[in-house]
Inverse folding.
């Protein structure tokens, strides 16, 4: 794509996979679909589970066998507001209004908003205050282990930690929606006398 005299670099795609049968561990792979760049560990997220509910880590390297935590997300029981940590910075991902599913947080580059691409779908897009998209999440419906992919705009001006902020806030938003759907789909009674 060419804008004026500038060529926009291609988008970067991150691929999100569940590990194990419980779905409590995710691996986020780079564009090559083989290089892990994030490991996400989550707990059940019930009222009795400890916070944070999700831990975002860098995978072990050749010099270290331990995962390095870079952020976290915690969900509130009676609120749609999420508590996020990017390194040592704590921020809130909160609704932009009472009747909207859009969620906003203060990033290192200013306010960013996750919006739904459709009224009922799982697909999301991250926009800045000017309305320019920075990232898109496309959920996978008919896949056993793949949760979806996150497309990072090639036109994003990267600041320190911006990719971490996009990944942490986006995956936390997707997980919050998944937990909300799970909690709202509780069974109705079986009828009877």
């Amino acid at each position: 794509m060419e804008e004026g005299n500038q060529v926009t670099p291609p988008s970067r795609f991150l691929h999100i996979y569940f590990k194990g049968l419980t779905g409590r561990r995710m691996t986020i792979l780079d564009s090559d679909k083989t290089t892990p760049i994030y490991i996400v560990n989550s707990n059940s997220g019930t009222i009795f589970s400890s916070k944070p509910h999700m831990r975002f880590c860098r995978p072990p390297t050749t010099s270290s066998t331990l995962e390095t935590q870079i952020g976290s997300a915690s969900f509130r029981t009676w609120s749609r507001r999420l508590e996020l940590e990017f390194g040592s910075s704590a921020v809130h991902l909160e609704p932009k209004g009472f009747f909207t599913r859009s969620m906003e947080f203060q990033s290192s580059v200013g306010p960013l908003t996750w919006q739904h691409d459709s009224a009922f779908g799982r697909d999301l897009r991250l926009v800045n205050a000017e309305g320019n998209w920075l990232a898109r999440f496309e959920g996978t419906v008919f896949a056993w282990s793949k949760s979806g992919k996150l497309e990072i705009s090639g036109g994003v001006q990267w600041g320190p930690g911006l990719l971490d902020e996009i990944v942490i806030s986006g995956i936390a938003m997707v997980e919050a929606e998944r937990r909300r759907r799970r909690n709202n789909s509780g069974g109705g009674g079986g009828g009877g006398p």
Q: What stands out?
A: Residues 162-184 form the longest helix (23 residues). The chain has one helix and 14 strands. Residues 187-193 have pLDDT under 50 and may be disordered.
